[in-house]
Design goal:
This protein is of the alpha/beta class. The chain is 41% helix and 15% strand.
């Protein structure tokens, strides 16, 4: 093969590598585990990624998910510029999993958990990125601790108020996901997980996702469900930059959810992803990462 052909092949290979998204099972950038203990005595599994001197971002995953949900962010160019922190919510992943429903019903406990992660990482006014159920967690944080300790928020297919008519059909799987019958639980979780995407994950990624979904005990899932949510008043007083990211084909939370959130928060920017479901950070990671980077830079310039 000629030198010219070798150069062409090398260039084509490099281009292909740039276009292909990494799978969740690919070798990841090095991370530093964080030992986090909440005020109510739970051990939370957390991880630091990227530039320790950059502006902070805390990624908060959704119902029955884990820190691995964010690998297309932690293992991306975001890590070059930002101090990234991921963690498993109580009851999820490698964090403690108390089975009492009361441990998941206290808004202050959720707020304190977020603060414990921020403190353990030594972050100064990070941007909070909250997917799905994490809209509740961020609402708990702002309600109980105010917004002085954060510089911005990205609500990712997340709600600040429960509005029944905005609920998507995929959430009908939640009661069966709390079943103690293993086969019923697995089947419902599989259907739910597929419903979280319009652009479906690769087979390998789906297996990884199903595995970490099944790490959440049925009693924890039951404890998470049915918690009231209405943070309209507190969110209407925010003065920090806010991005509302939402898939147009979301089957969990209809796009009206995002429009409502953006209408409540002064100056909030609404970003709708056409052809994308409940998981824009996975389904269109390049756009998501670019818009998040712009938010973090704006938040740190403004504040």
């Amino acid at each position: 093969m000629s030198a010219r052909h070798l150069l062409a092949l090398s260039a084509a290979t490099a281009l292909l590598a740039a276009l292909v998204q990494p799978s969740l099972g690919d070798e990841l950038l090095k991370n530093k585990p964080l030992a986090v203990t909440t005020p109510d005595g739970l051990t939370i599994a957390a991880q630091e990624w990227g530039n320790p001197n950059g502006p902070g971002i805390v990624f908060i995953h959704g119902f029955s998910q884990s820190n691995l949900s964010w690998m297309r962010q932690a293992n991306s160019d975001l890590a070059k510029d930002f101090h990234i922190v991921t963690y498993d919510l109580r009851g999820h992943g490698n964090s403690d999993k108390p089975l009492e429903a009361a441990r998941y019903r206290d808004g202050k406990a959720w707020a304190d958990e977020v603060q414990a992660v921020i403190d353990a990482a030594g972050l100064k006014r990070p941007v909070l990125v909250g997917w799905s159920y994490a809209g509740r967690v961020i609402s708990d944080y702002v309600t109980n601790r105010g917004a002085a300790g954060i510089s911005g928020i990205d609500f990712v297919d997340a709600s600040i108020k429960f509005i029944p008519e905005y609920v998507g059909d995929n959430l009908k799987n939640l009661p069966l996901m709390a079943s103690e019958d293993m086969l019923t639980n697995i089947n419902a979780t599989r259907v739910f997980l597929h419903g979280c995407f319009s652009k479906q994950p690769s087979a390998d990624d789906f297996e990884t996702m199903l595995a970490f979904n099944m790490m959440v005990p049925p009693k924890v899932r039951a404890g998470l469900s049915g918690r009231p949510l209405d943070a309209t008043e507190v969110m209407s007083k925010l003065t920090i930059p806010v991005l509302v990211s939402h898939g147009a084909e979301d089957k969990n939370a209809k796009v009206e959810t995002a429009k409502f959130t953006a209408s409540v928060i002064p100056g909030a920017k609404l970003s709708i992803y056409d052809g994308v479901g409940h998981s824009p950070f996975y389904e269109d990671a390049p756009r998501f990462n670019s818009e998040l980077a712009a938010l973090v830079r704006a938040a740190n310039k403004t504040n």
